[in-house]
Amino acid sequence: MNTDSITAKTPEALEGVTWFKVKSRREVNIEIERLKYEGISTLRLGIDCAKFNTKKGIKWYDWLVPTLAESFTLELCFDNFSHCPITSIPRKYSLPEIVEHFIVIHGQHFQLVELWRNPSIRANEEMDENIFSEDVVFTATWAQHHGKKVGLGGIQTVDFNWITKLITCQFLSNIEYLNIDKTTEDQWSTNTRFYERTLQGLFTAKGVKTQIKTSETPMLLLYSTNDEIVC
Fold this sequence. Notes:
This protein is of the alpha/beta class. It is built from nine helices and eight strands. About 35% of the residues lie in helices and about 15% in strands. Helix 4 links the parallel strand 3 and strand 4. The longest helix is centred in the last third of the chain and has 15 residues. The relative contact order is 0.16.
């Protein structure tokens, strides 16, 4: 999948998630002017949690978010270290701490956060009975406590049992949407329409009002990110 350039736009917002590589401020400002010229008003900004943990990461995002907020309505999407195992080398900042940083420092610039599950969690068949111990659920609860709307992103077919647990504990009653990812695993992407209908039927039966969305377009990179992320 080629994600080195922007391939899909609407008059109001970019499709998918926009990722800014840690780079020069001058190039970002140039890109902002181009997006404004394209008529973009809303930006789903990807937050790379691994890069946030680098030496320049915090300083970069502390400049980037308010700079973008001057021109766009922002929705922040946190990838939750999706490119590296959850059990890799310990990180200075975890997902809850990273989201806390953005809410405390930049909370005035956004109203919604989208949180993803780390793929390595899916490999653990024995999920903790306390669903609120999972970082995504804990972080979502904390963000809602601070007045932010929350969506869950990167949902896959293998998350069905996890979602039923969220329904059982009534966690989804305060979640804005689930975003089903149709781009990461080609071998099952053709089944996501059935998956979406199944979830919708379950939500209707249980009285869950959470919206179901699908990500059919690739995530968008404004800059090539070929350099490896060290976790």
